[in-house]
């Protein structure tokens, strides 16, 4: 086909296309490509678990109701004003529940998340009810002891069926929801024994409190929960973060020479 012999509609379309291009160029109407969203690096395991637990502030706030119960029960009971046992207990229950409600109300007034406050209030309410019904301060701590022992059983069972819970926690919080650690023998073994470490940690916490419960040492249970439980938890958490980082870093270093080749 010789130049100029194109069909009229084709030539007409070509002119329109050229005019359109000139208009676009003149007015700078080229579509602006949307910037690609950069994949933000996931926070570390430590940061994400800390956030789920409410950070240092969350740990402190969860300890305040327990501390209020212990102090009021001691100061108003035999070691203080020597009020009748039940009177001191009721004041201690009121102080504990009241402090938990105050923390939740304060967070709500400042439009801050109240998830941790609500969870803490639920546990405090059950313990307070048991203590009120039985008239025995030690029952305030019974739900927490039983819950911790239940967690121990679940952790050990997860290892027995080769589904270590700590691996799932790591996958959700620090691995973008992926559970490819199942296909990583070294990481899988790490999560198996780390889950047992957590089970041992929780058993020690519950065991000491349970022994004091059987010995009718109500105030001692509260002191142990506030002063001993959290340090044990913090040490176990730090060890877990270190162990996982050690394995993942070693495997990353092993892959680098291969990728370079």
Give the secondary structure arrangement, pairings included:
Elements: H1 8-27, H2 45-53, H3 55-76, H4 85-109, H5 115-134, H6 142-160, H7 165-174, H8 185-214, H9 218-260
Helix pairs in contact: 2-3, 3-4, 3-5, 3-9, 4-5, 6-8, 8-9
Structure description:
By secondary structure, this protein is an all-alpha fold. The protein folds into two domains: 96 residues, no CATH class; 108 residues, no CATH class. Helices cover 76% and strands 0% of the residues. The protein contains nine helices and no strands. It is elongated. About 7% of the residues have low confidence.
User: How would you spell out the order of helices and strands?
Assistant: HHHHHHHHH
**Radius of gyration in whole Å, from Cα?**
31 Å
Point out poorly predicted stretches. Answer: 8-12, 27-40
Number of domains: 2
Give the DSSP E fraction (strand runs of 2 or more residues): under 5%
User: What global shape is seen?
Assistant: elongated
N/C terminus separation: 55 Å
| Count of helical regions | 9
On the 0-100 scale, what is the average pLDDT?
78
The biggest beta sheet reads:
none
Number of E-type strands = 0
Question: Which key phrases capture this entry?
Answer:
261 residues; mainly alpha; elongated; 0% strand
How is this structure best summarized?
The chain is an all-alpha fold and 261 residues long. The protein is built from nine helices and no strands.
